[in-house]
Design a protein that fits this description.
mainly alpha; 29 helices; 0% strand; transmembrane; Iron ABC transporter permease; ABC_BtuC-like; cell membrane
Amino acid sequence: MHGKLKAKSFVSLTGGFFLLFALSLIHLTQGQADYSISELLSGVWGEGRIQDIVVSLRLPRLAVGILAGGALAVSGAVLQTLTNNPLASPGTLGINAGAFFFVVLSTIFFPGFVGGFPFATALLGAVVSSLLVVVLAGKQMDPVRVALTGMIIALLFSSMTGTMQLLFENETSGLFLWGSGTLVQLNWTGVQFAAPVIFVTFAAVLLLAKPMDILSLGEDIASSLGQNVRLVKLAAWGTAIVLAATTVSVVGPIGFIGLMAPHIVRMMGIRGHLQILIHAFLWGSVMLIGADVLGRLVQPGQEVPAGAMTALIGGPWLLYLAWKTAKSMKRGERQMGGTPKPVRLKMIVPILVGSILVVSTLAFSYNGLSWNFNWLSAVVWDFRVPRVLTAFIVGVMLAITGVILQGVLRNPLADASVLGVTSMGGAGALLLLVVFPAIPPAFLPLGATFGASLALGIILLTAWKNNFQPMLVALMGIAISAFGSAATQILVVKAKLAVASALVWLSGSTYAKGWDDVQLALILFALFIWPAVYITRSLDTLTFGDDVAGGLGLNIRSTRVWALVVGVAISTAAVSIVGTIGFIGLVAPHIARRLVGFRHLPLMLSSGLIGGLLLVTADFIGRILIAPNDIPSGLIVALIGTPYLLYLLKKMK
């Protein structure tokens, strides 16, 4: 047995080094200055054009790719052990997003500081996001809970990053390419900084290999064997965070390497953390250099971010891992909460309607600079009134989507954004802009519909045989959402269009909505509200659990299919009107459930009103906060809703 492990290790190391050497030779020949491998091997030793290009530009890029790929892979391997979660990585836990946000923040407000110490700000962001994951996921580190927590934290930081990029477009214009993950280096500065930090941290991780072997047996066993579990976990978290922060500060947030490389190594039969970490470093380097080579082969002469290629490769891999993880876990029936003493609708509805009328009156009358109570004037009637009405209808639709998806998946954190519908809708819309750059913005909903339908198709295809196990659908949604978000980031860089306008639509905005949009929203709402109301009784039955619901004669598979179709259709309709707005479908049903209980018909009514109120409020705040400029309502909703959502995560058992 020991001989077999040695043979597998030898094959993995030999094959990895050979592949890395071959890819490195190809990598050094790629770029606008064209020369062959033979010219490279002969010309690099003497002074001249080839040596100058290789030494000053291409070799630093290759070196930083090897270092970053290895660091991300080792960080992912450590995080997977610490969280007992095969889906864990710096990208899926929100660590990369947190590090990137803090770098963007420092670039805007402390440009002198971040210019000299990008690592410090990235490290601070990585630490903050990691602490949020640990605190909110709880001691049990349930894989689904960890994955959902990481995704929501990534959504939070991405929303705040988008807000900063919109508000300070000039200051952050140079960060769009870097924000997608690029290995471009203009000198050796990045390598000189990253190499010692990564090598020292990697050595520290190797010293933790044996303690992590013991820790993987379980905390109780590790403690009984005399291990200081808390110290080992703290040291391991520290090394993983430092490795992730170092890569973000040098090459930007690159995803999926930390997810894929450790799994590939384990699939080769490598066992024991010492061997896994060494092999993961090698294969992480191979994968990142290979992605950079592939990106420049696909589009020679243009800079396709390495993070773009890792996303395209890693998205399907994440889908596979999510499917495998959910299959290996027991079906859980998560409690949805709700008050034991629901308030009557005849008390709740008038309060909500009154609040909506008050906020709408303010939105009609105030533009952030002056008041205008003549609502029939052109500026109010033609611009503000339809904008507010559109926001209200879309808010209702998003909240209803949240009620349906949370009910059918038995998951209080389910929402169109968690299922990947929102992010894939945004990616589909941007894809349309890239393929047809001259297409009018009015056709963006077609792309959004295509992307959202693709997300639904993947979920239906993968979950059908498993009777739409809620855990499986939730994890598949996380994978789809991660892929859609990565694809969106790639397309923003690739499109070479007005990035600000693309970000506005992707962030969700009711800007410049007219009466045609109100009409479209009303038609779509009228079309989908009846099937949504019709399935409420089936959703009520599902609250008792699958076994009881089946015993009562409910066709569980059919119910889940139709509920998913209806929920995704309503969400797609909302996305097609105002772009990608998240959090409404997460927050509104939770607030309503604490008021009216878990019965779905009153829950749907109160959630819809709360969702409409939230989006109208967010739109009003976004319009007046920096008047006469606008902040997209989706970003305001994220900033308002996230603290409440994080509070729910902490309380949820």
